[in-house]
Amino acid sequence: MAAPPARWTDLRRFTPARVALGRAGNGLPTAAHLAFQAAHAAARDAVNASLDVAALCDELNTAGLRSITVQSEAPDRRTYLLRPDLGRRLRDRVAIPSMPGAMLFVVCDGLSAIAVQRHAVPLLQRMTQAAGNAAPVVIVEQGRVAIGDDIGEAMGAEAVAVLIGERPGLTAADSLGVYLTWQPRRGRTDAERNCISNIRPEGLPPEAAAAKLLWLIGAMRQLRRTGIALKDEQPAFKMIDAGQEPQKAPGQ
Question: What integer pLDDT is reported at residue 85 of this predicted model?
């Protein structure tokens, strides 16, 4: 077993968490206190930021990806934060085209529009070329994870992957998450989803997240299920495309 760090400050090499900050009397040093205040302000800004839908649509169009825009039943940001249930329901189902059997990608602002603005398009560029039979990307304002079930049911989608801004922390305000659900419909629970979290250059880079999501889509299509019934065993398998069956690596 490796020896423990000689000093607490050695831990700073391994984590962006606030460790070994020191002290000034009974409080934190001024620099550490100011850094905390700045991180807290960045997290609050991320929660309250609005998604630039027009810019996101332009980026998707430049990447060759079609998109449509819808809204949840939450009419504004304040209501969205106070009423999570309204963010889970689609305001107008008529605006959703029918695409039976499609692989659906939904982009929600969630609790960090900044994360979506920065990381959604790079991830989608890697995904849609390999997923096959993909519907137009659906952009949702004031959306929660479960709104993907509502949209997927309305479209008759085979599965839905919801890209959403995650709740900011004090070390990351731009973390993107992806939730994959087989045969989405109203009433699905979180136990029926697979989640990939902390997608950002300093966490799980978009290219690595895309590889993991492609593996999960391939395994999902083989097993016809997601959530607790679909284990993330990617390291034990060779890389596969979304339309292929997973194969065990030698010796497994």
Answer: 96
* Domain limits for position 195: 53-236
Please provide the average confidence, as pLDDT, over all residues in the chain: 86
The answer to whether residue 152 is domain-embedded is yes
In a domain, 16, yes or no: no
95 or 82, which is more confident: 82
CATH code for the domain of 131: 3.40.50.11240
Between CA 111 and CA 191 the distance in angstroms is: 21
pLDDT at 117 over 90: yes
C-beta neighbour count of 197 within 10 angstroms = 13
Number of domains present in the structure of the chain: 1
Check the CA dihedral 109-84-195-152 and report its sign: negative
Does the residue 5 lie in any domain? Answer: no
Please check the confidence at residue 154 and state whether its pLDDT lies above 60: yes
Q: How far apart are CA 208 and CA 197, in angstroms?
A: 11
Query: For residues 237 and 248, is the Cβ–Cβ distance under 8 A?
Result: yes
Q: What is the pairing mode between strands 176-182 and 193-199? A: antiparallel
Greater model confidence, 129 or 54: 54
Q: Tokens standing for 5?
A: 């760090």
The yes-or-no verdict on residue 127 having pLDDT over 60 is: yes
Residues 6+ apart with CB under 8 A from 47: 81, 111, 112, 167, 168
Question: Do 78 and 142 contact (CB within 8 A), yes or no?
Answer: no
Residue 181 lies in a domain: yes
